[in-house]
Amino acid sequence: MSIVYTELTLKNEIDSAFAEKGYIKENEIRQMTVNAVVDTGAWTLVINEDIRQKLGLRDKGFGEANLADGQKAYFPMAGPLEIWWKNRHMTCDALVMPDAPEVLLGAIPLEHMDLTINPKRELVGVHGDKEMHRV
Q: 10-residue block means of pLDDT along the chain (135 residues)?
């Protein structure tokens, strides 16, 4: 199976709400575009500490993660942030693995935005999209 990447825009949700109310300008919303690994073994979005700081996300406690070697570990959670994939989005908190080399897009955000993966074509698309399955 190949590794599937997709482009996401991550936004500070509190900044977005402030911009909507006119407290800050739209261009003041802290956001970034990242190339994320689609990881159905992860339950949520996983970011590193550098991204948390750049987006100005708040501490939201701790979340549990099952690591590749089978161990359980607890990592900080941060948020709220908006995950945008093309015209679809959701708001959630992210698991912060301090030195994670890549952003991971997990199962809950994939489901919430109704996205599917075609590992053979290395694509992410909308559930039911016939373009995803054309060979």
A: 89 97 97 95 94 97 88 95 96 94 95 88 76 53
Q: Looking at the domain assignment, is residue 131 inside a domain?
A: no
Q: Which among 9, 118, 100 is positioned nearest to 47, based on CA atoms?
A: 100
> Are 79 and 94 within 8 A, CB to CB?
yes
Beta bridge partners of 64: 74
How do residues 93-110 score in pLDDT, each as one tens digit?
999 998 899 999 999 999
Residue with tokens 């990881």, as numbered in its chain: 39
In a domain, 108, yes or no: no
Q: Is the pTM of this model over 0.85?
A: yes
Residue by residue, DSSP assigns 101-117 as SS-EE-HHHHHHTTEEE
Domain span including residue 16: 12-42+50-72+80-90
CA torsion 27-76-34-54 (nearest 10°) is 40
